[in-house]
Structure formats: C-alpha cells, structure tokens
Amino acid sequence: MMALGLVPEWRCKMLHVTTAELRKDTEALIRKVNSDNEPILVSENQKVLAVIMPVTAESFEDELEDTIDLEAARRSLAEQGEDLTLAEYEKRMKLTDGV
Fold it and tell me: What digits encode the pLDDT tens for the residues 8-67?
C-alpha cells in the first residue's frame, strides 16, 4: 500500500511542481491552472502537499453555500453545547451513508 500523499508519476498525468517552483512562479502557475482548466499538484520531497485547482463561479458558489450552511449548523450546535465534525454532521443530517 502506498503512503498517503504519494502519487506515482505514471498514475497521475497532472502537472507536478515543487514548493520551491511554486514560490518562484506562483503567478504563472495560477494563470496556467486557469487557462488550462487543470489542477496542479504541489509536492515536497516527492510527497503531495496541496492541489491548486481552477475555480468556476458555480463550484465556488456551491462551496461557499456549503461552508455557510456548515458554519450555521456549528453555531447552532455550539449554542446547544454540542460540537460536531463535518462527518458527524453529515451522518446526522443523512448527507452521506456514513462511509
């Protein structure tokens, strides 16, 4: 089994950059993500640390709505003296099958 975060080059066709390359060429890499509409994997010592992904207006709006809903639910639960993880909240709200 492969360690989490390690992606063999042959299994992933995405562009890979190191953290040093990202620091050096941040603006160009962000423009590339947006123009190619493809994510870029950022790694250090051959371990993937992050993914830079293009954002569409629709996907951003969906994520923002999810975040607002989750924060509202957390505030409500905190007022009741409960604190849930996202997985617990989704399970309670039957948003996932608990996997």
Answer: 554 467 788 999 999 999 999 999 998 998 889 999 998 989 999 888 777 778 888 888
18 and 35, same domain (yes or no): yes
Distance between CA 60 and CA 34 in Å, rounded? 14
Read off the DSSP letter of residue 11.
G
Q: Tokens 């207006």 appear where?
A: 57
For residues 95 and 89, what is the distance between their CA atoms, to the nearest angstrom?
Answer: 8
98 is a domain residue: no
Find out whether 89 and 73 touch, Cβ atoms under 8 Å.
Answer: yes
Sign, CA torsion 13/52/27/59:
positive
The residues, any chain, with a CB within 8 Å of residue 50's CB and separated by 6 or more, are 41, 42
